[in-house]
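Hey, quick one: can you model this chain's 3D structure?
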Amino acid sequence: MLGLLGRRAGSQWPLLAALLAVVTAGAALLGVCALLVTVSADRAREKAAAAATPTRTEVTGYAVTIARPDVPAVAADTERVLTEALAPFAVSTVGRASAVMRPMSGDAVGYLSGVQDLPKRATLMSGRWPGTGGEAVVLETTARLLRLSPGDTVALGAEQVRDPAPPATVTITGVVRALPGAGWDRDLLGGAGYDLAYRGAGALQPAKAYGPFLVGYRELLSGTAALSRLEITAHPDLSDPDHHALARVESSILEADRRLAAALGERVQIERVGSRLPGTLAEARHQQQVTTAAVLAVAVLGTALTVAALALAGRLTADVRSGETALLSAMGASRWQLAGVAAAEAGLLALTATLLAVPLSSAVHRWISGDTLTVTGAQAAAVTGGALLAVFAIRTAPPPTGERDRRTLLARSGADVLLVALAAAGWWQLDAQPDTAQTEVDAVRILSPALILAAGCAVALRLVPPALTVADRLVHRTRGLPMPLAVVQAARRPTAAAMLIALGCAAATFGVAFDATWQRSQRDQADLSVGTDLAIALGGPPATGQGAVLQAAVGGTVAPTTNRGVAVGQWLGGNGEPPRLVAVDGHRTGTLLRGGGEDWSAVGARLVPATAAAGIAVPNGSRITVTGHATGTAPIATSPRLILEDPTGLRTACSGAATPLDGRPHELPGCATADGLRLVAVLLPVTSDAIGWDATGDSRIDVTVTVPGAAAGGTWTAASSQPFPEQLQAPAVAVSGATLRMTATVELGGPAEAGRQLVATAFTDPGAVPVAVSRRLAEQLSVSPGSTLQVTVGNTPVPVQVVTIVPGVPSAPGSVAILADLDTISRALLVRGDPQLPVDAWWVADPSNASAAAGLHLGEISTRTGEAARLTTGPVPAGLPDALRLLVPAAILLLLAGVTLHVTCDLHARAVEVARLRGLGMTRREIRTTLLGQHTIVMVPVLAAGAVVGALATWVVAPLMIRSETGAAPVPAVAPVWPWPAELAVLAALAAGCLLAVTTVVAVQSRRADAAHLRVTS
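Sure thing. Here's the predicted structure for all 1018 residues.
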């Protein structure tokens, strides 16, 4: 029998070669998919961790209120806990420490501070960096207010704590300028260098605070001073991480807070460990799970196509060898002998396919992903299992009967009905999946696309025979023999490859459209998540003139933006997700906002105030003074706050120290520091020791703010702020040239917590702020256009009115969010006595040099193009487009292999029929025309049916399959894309490939059909 096996292989080598190609292609497809969802997935998470920014991987330990003797041990223990939490990765640490406030001359206070990498966080303007022995450098603003220069000394009193450090004298060695985005927001004074109304913990009265006086970091940790704050930041080296080590670090960091508390004990008042690294790793893991689910769905679709090709190969092989098997049985071969021969042949075929598929799958994986991988257990198992199953399917497939008896048709009808029912159930499950995050690999999402495509092809193929029957009836009216004969044969002979052709075309067209739809959805999500072309989340409070510097560097349209959590009435959101307020310049909404498919120009037009605030132009360098008078004998003082607006719309508050209303002018230093400023509001909180419940009488105040060289404009209004606005009566404001005069009557008696603050603004109260809300917020709060809500910004409640509902708010996709005009929000806050402009970011539209923003060190930068690249070509999601790039050529190759095998076997079975036609006088050309026409007539409508099924699946399945990186429903909603140029190219390639395969096989096989076949079979 083994000799028979060798001789049969030698005579039937084309058939075996075709079988080997199909088995190898199917096994290689499984091997590549195994690599994509195993080793590639692990490497993708490793690459994502290596590519994360330092702010997303650093781990910081915080400690508050440390006694002087405990400082060295607390710092060492904190660094040890962080290093152990990040093991086995190499770690570098940097620290920052601030000592407790010490008294200075008069009512001023100051403090020492140490920054380990100070030269990276500040620029030396004059002098030199500090050494040891009480040397320090100061910020520019501190040096200007205290009139300090290198060589001066500053005396600091003894600490006012238990076990205090004695008085100290520091020598100023240099003046530095704080770099933006360098962590100065965590300084006691926020990096401002001074606070003329500083109120520390337990302080009864505000004081003038100056600092920090920056000494050596290690010197400050030597136990010479008690610390108010200590923070140590560890940066792990994740340049070449291992996914097992990353998993250990993720769990270890989550336990680090507890370990730090145990290590520090009672030596500190507050301690904690903060890091974004666990969240970064969890995000990568969730995104990988979403990608894996999509890749598996594509793999199942490719496997279904492979099974169809293998089933066709099995049926055709059994049909070709049916006569041979019957002859061997008649000659006395037992069933065990036949089974042994089949098993030996199947084993050799499976072994050969495995040996070919393993390196082939590795090479294909390297081509589509760029990774060089060795053979893995998962890959070898997938390839071997696929080869064995494929061969088993081929060897056990029943031969086609060629007859459409009633039982066969009934069985097929039942199978089609079951397939359609399963596909409908799968679609229903997909449609019913919740919008919330779903990161687990769901079998329904994996199997549904293949089921729906197979069911669609099965239904579509039911329409092909009736169409061919109609053509059969009409073709009798035509002349000639080849074409009528081709139509008759096409209509009356079963086409075993129809399902493969339809499914292959459907899979190829669906793969191209799914890729285009997925790419479009990721770009739409990137547009909406960033909100604009370039967004910079500020690392600290914005400074006056910062917008002009940014615009000069990157170009485009620059505007300040709010993006923060707020409370809507008493509602704080759900699942730890607070409602978000996004406020931008309404006049430039259409220019700034991106994503969501909305007409943001129309939305912005409904949000902006009616008129712009004119204000008072403030020349750069103006020496602004405040002069006030108060009636009565009680001393009255005010701490004026001037609200200045720069050309980008940024409003900042310039606060002065407590200024007595004694009739003398008092200068407000450091206010006019940039060009193009306008004074748009003044807040005058009134304070006096005479104010109280038992006090009687009132005091008439008259305060004038003078801006030399200013030009007044617009109309000003005055009001008394909450709470208890009646405690300040008859507020009024008048503007004349360079002066702004404000008057009011202050009631001395009454609640001490009353505002007693006069607010003068260059605009009127905007009333309820018009806002747009996301659909999710509207659904959760049951609001509609016209509804009125109350939003708490900071500590100030602001009434808002819903004017429109949008699917999603830029920079807050999928969130309960509110979109408003920043200018209107600021006006509403100011007229209520709140000087804050809640700016969290800078947004830039149409930047000409977005990369220049990194050199400004303002904060975390994100761009639409960068986010789109991360979502489409990043290491974690790249597996899906890789799988789709594999699916389309695999579908084409399997389809062409199946068509070639089908035509070869069909012509082999019809060789006698062809010979008889030759005997009847038909030329070889006419026979070739007949055979080519027969297969073309069948394949064209089948290809068309597959393309229609692929298109319908794109509209029905693709939007349900695509999820966001968190596993939630994407926002904005997925819009199906049918890329006509690519689809036409695929269909043209399929049609041309099928035509070429059929033409080649027909030309070769028709030459073998001659009278010899008649003599053999007669």
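One thing worth noting: Residues 297 and 446 are 4 Å apart (CA to CA).
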